[in-house]
Write a structure and sequence with these properties.
Elements lengths: L7 H12 L4 E5 L6 H9 L5 E5 L5 H7 L8 E4 L14 H29 L2 E6 L3 H4 L5 H21 L4 E8 L5 H4 L3 H9 L9 H11 L11 E4 L8
Parallel strand pairs: 1-2, 3-4, 4-5, 5-6
Helix pairs in contact: 1-2, 1-9, 4-6
Family: Belongs to the short-chain dehydrogenases/reductases (SDR) family.
Protein name: 3-oxoacyl-ACP reductase
GO molecular function: oxidoreductase activity
Length: about 240
């Protein structure tokens, strides 16, 4: 299951998984009709595809997404959005919405998925964090804090779920050319590109390939890791 699969990174993850032969469940908001175009493209790979619409920031809607699902091998917590706000003007609602979608969304979906994965004694969760969850960012305190929370959630789940054979990792993308970034305009893209040693933003497929690796047997000794896919924007030793 991939949340936020109607656009950008989530769409690319869905297509990459389908290319590799996985059946996929696509989630997005009911307003995101493009998810049906993604379904058509996924099905061209000869795999099965279900669309489950719902807002990941609502516990009740997330529980409904999981009704009727008997087996789940991989959950990708990807749904998200970006909205800048000067810290002193950040409203309670803006803060709540940001944390609800990114952090509560990952929590609600992981909680429901883990119940299935524990029975299977196997599973993978890949959380899409952000380099800003590691670095922090001006005018994005709410976004950065939510993504930092996603990173801590990843590590805690990795520890708690290891005995059940469930591996939990995060991918922390740097700026990536998706509608989320493109809608901020070419100047923003140019400024952002300059921030990275590779002097460009990522392509959604470059993120999706790493998500696919973390969902595959090739990463069987990895859990609790935050994998930076960021053109060198963050380097830890
Ligand atoms: P995008 O806007 O192209 O796609 C995000 C998708 O999530 C959309 O289809 C949207 O409808 C869906 N979504 C939003 N809120 C939702 C909700 N409450 N419930 C269900 N679906 C919801 O953005 P993207 O760039 O592909 O972002 C995907 C993820 O990657 C996000 O978590 C984002 O924070 C993260 N990320 C993006 C970048 C970047 O530069 N693009 C960098 C780091 C991290």
């Amino acid at each position: 299951m991939i949340t936020g699969a109607g656009s950008g990174i989530g769409k690319s993850v869905a297509l990459t998984f389908a290319e590799k032969g996985a059946n996929v469940i696509l989630n997005d908001l009911p307003s995101q009709a493009s998810v049906y175009q993604v379904k058509e493209r996924v099905e061209r790979h000869g795999v099965q595809c279900l669309v489950k619409l719902g807002d990941v920031s609502s516990s009740g809607e997330v529980n409904k997404l999981f009704v009727g699902i008997e087996r789940l091998d991989i959950l990708v917590n990807n749904a998200g959005f970006l909205k800048e706000s000067v810290f002193t003007e950040l409203s309670d609602d803006e803060w709540d919405k940001m944390v609800k979608v990114h952090l509560y969304g990952a929590f609600y979906c992981a909680r429901a998925a883990v119940k299935l994965m524990m029975k299977q004694r196997a599973g993978r969760i890949v959380n899409i964090a952000s380099d800003l969850g590691q670095l922090g960012c001006e005018r994005l305190a709410h976004y950065s804090a939510a993504k930092g929370g996603v990173i801590a959630l990843t590590k805690s789940l990795a520890r708690e779920l290891a005995p059940y054979g469930i591996l939990v990792n995060a991918v922390a993308p740097g700026g990536t050319l998706t509608p989320l970034v493109e809608r901020l305009g070419p100047e923003y893209v140019a400024e952002e590109s300059a921030r990275y040693p590779l002097k460009r933003l990522g392509r959604p497929e470059e993120i999706a390939n790493v998500v696919a690796f973390l969902a595959s047997d090739d990463s069987s000794f990895m859990t609790g890791q935050v994998v930076g896919v960021n053109g060198g924007g963050v380097m830890y030793g």
